[in-house]
Amino acid sequence: MNRRLIKKVLQQKHEDFVLSIKDERVQKLVKKNSIITGGCITSMLLNEKVNDFDYYFTDLETAQAVAEYFVKVFNELNPNACKKENDGIRLSPPEVKVIDGRVKIWIQSAGIIGEGSEEQTYKYFEQHPEEEGMDYIENVIREADETDSSAMEGKSDIKFRPVYLSSNAITLSDKVQLVIRFYGTPEEIHKNYDFIHCCNYWTSCDKELVLKPAAVESILCKQLQYQGSLYPLCSIIRTRKFIKKGWNINAGEYLKMCFQLSQLDLSDVKVLEDQLVGVDSAYFRVLLDYCKKEEKNDPEFRVTVPYIVSLVDRIFGE
Question: Is the entire prediction scored with pTM above 0.70?
Answer without folding.
Answer: yes
